[in-house]
C-alpha cells in the first residue's frame, strides 16, 4: 500500500521552519501544534534538514543556557531520510525502524508534500486492517 493513499487524508497541516529561525521558534511550533518534528526548508521551499524534539532535548540537557536563541541550522540533521508518494508504507516503517527515526517527510519533485510520524502510519494501517476484517466478517455472514 503506497503512502500516497495517506496524502488525500483531509485536515493535514504541514508545518516547517527556516534554518535561520531560533530553537525557541521551533519549540513554539512543535508545542503549539502537538507535533514532534519539523522539516527545515530554505527560501526555495527545498528541504535542507529536519529538527525533532530529541534534537532540542539534547541541547537543553547541555550547559548552554541560551539554547532558545540558537539557530535551527546549528542543530538540525542535514541527512534527511525521506519518502516518495509511491513508496510502500511497510517499507517506510522498516526504514524508520532501521534508522531509529519517528518522522519522515514525503517529497515529490523536490517539494515537501507531507510529513508523517510512525504513529500516523500505524494508525492508518490499523484502520485499513479493521475495515478489511469487517468486510470479511460481513462476507462470511452473507454466505453462511
Explain briefly what this protein structure is.
The protein has 6 helices and 4 strands. With about 140 residues, the chain is of the alpha+beta class. Strands 1-2 form a two-stranded antiparallel sheet. The protein has a two-stranded antiparallel ribbon with strand order 3-4.
Fold topology:
Elements: H1 4-7, H2 23-33, E1 37-41, E2 47-52, H3 53-60, H4 72-75, H5 89-99, E3 103-108, E4 111-117, H6 118-143
Antiparallel strand pairs: 1-2, 3-4
Descriptive overview:
- This protein is an alpha+beta fold.
- The protein has a single domain, classed as CBS-domain (Roll).
- 44% of the residues lie in helices and 17% in strands.
- The protein has six helices and four strands; from the N terminus they run H-H-E-E-H-H-H-E-E-H.
- Strand 3 and strand 4 form a beta hairpin.
- The chain is elongated, with a radius of gyration of 18 Å.
What distinguishing features does this structure have?
144 residues; alpha+beta; CBS-domain; two-stranded antiparallel ribbon; 6 helices; 4 strands; 17% strand; elongated
Amino acid at each position: 500500500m503506497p503512502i500516497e493513499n495517506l496524502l488525500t487524508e483531509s485536515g493535514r497541516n504541514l508545518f516547517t521552519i527556516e534554518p535561520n529561525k531560533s530553537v525557541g521558534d521551533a519549540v513554539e511550533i512543535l508545542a503549539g501544534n502537538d507535533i514532534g518534528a519539523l522539516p527545515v526548508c530554505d527560501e526555495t521551499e527545498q528541504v535542507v534538514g529536519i529538527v525533532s524534539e530529541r534534537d532540542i532535548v539534547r541541547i537543553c540537557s547541555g550547559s548552554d543556557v541560551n539554547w532558545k536563541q540558537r539557530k535551527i541550522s546549528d542543530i538540525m540533521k542535514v541527512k534527511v531520510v525521506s519518502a516518495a508518494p509511491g513508496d510502500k508504507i511497510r517499507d517506510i516503517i522498516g526504514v524508520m525502524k532501521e534508522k531509529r527515526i519517528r518522522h519522515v517527510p514525503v517529497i515529490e519533485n523536490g517539494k515537501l508534500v507531507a510529513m508523517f510520524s510512525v504513529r500516523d502510519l500505524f494508525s492508518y494501517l490499523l484502520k485499513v486492517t479493521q475495515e478489511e476484517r469487517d468486510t470479511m466478517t460481513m462476507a462470511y455472514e452473507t454466505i453462511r
